[in-house]
Design a protein that fits this description.
Blueprint lengths: L2 E12 L6 H17 L12 H7 L6 H4 L5 H6 L3 E6 L5 E3 L2 E10 L2 E12 L3 E7 L2 E6 L11 E4 L4 E9 L6 H25 L1
Antiparallel strand pairs: 1-5, 1-6, 1-9, 2-3, 4-5, 6-7, 7-8
């Protein structure tokens, strides 16, 4: 059986309805950061939305990650645990990186500001899927007889964002071994035949 490696991505939307301290900090600080960087792409003040700025100047796409600078410490305080996503035992799922995206924002109306944070896991070994459930384990490179797995349910805002199939070298060993044994058998047969001919 081939080894299937996946990464999961979970998207958290943050808007004016933010309730937790983390969400409120993300909402307020990314908007402030946006107002600080936006003038570079809006010198004549012709645009009010991020979408308009990007349409006029594709370099404004950099605003997506630039606003992320403002929340780096808040993300670090999460301890690599994804807010709102748990496995079937109630343990918080872990992430490796967090990507920021401005879903919508208006420079004249903070209440319309919407951010998306996409948390991407480290590589996971996908063992099985049962309906909407995935059985996975953290990939440590080498397959072992027993792996510590966890089960997570596919749900809104959660998706497989990376999928890779790795052929297992140990699966090739039986055929290699068979070829070697077959070769040795042929040599042995020839040797026995030569011995009998004497």
């Amino acid at each position: 059986m081939d080894k299937v490696i996946v990464k999961l991505g979970y998207k958290q939307l943050v808007d004016r309805s933010a309730k937790s301290g983390f969400e409120q900090n993300v909402f307020n600080d990314t908007y402030s950061e946006l107002l600080m960087h936006a003038p570079v792409y809006n010198r004549e003040k012709k645009f009010t939305t991020v979408a308009e700025m990007i349409e006029a100047n594709p370099k404004a796409n950099s605003l997506h990650y630039k606003v992320g600078f403002a929340i780096g410490l808040y993300v670090k305080e999460l301890g690599n645990k994804i807010p709102g996503l748990q496995d079937n035992l109630g343990n918080a799922a872990s992430f490796e990186i967090c990507k920021t995206e401005i879903v919508y924002s208006d420079l004249t109306d903070k209440s319309k500001h919407v951010m998306a944070l996409t948390y991407v896991t480290s590589p996971l070994w996908l063992f099985r899927s049962f309906g909407e459930y995935l059985v996975v384990a953290f990939d440590h490179g080498e397959p072992s007889e027993e792996a510590e797995t966890f089960t997570i349910r596919l749900q809104p805002n959660l998706s497989i964002v990376s999928y890779k199939v790795e052929e297992q070298a140990d699966h090739l060993l039986p055929s290699d071994l068979y070829a070697t044994l077959n070769w040795r058998k042929e040599i042995l047969t020839e040797t026995v035949d030569d011995w009998r001919a004497l």
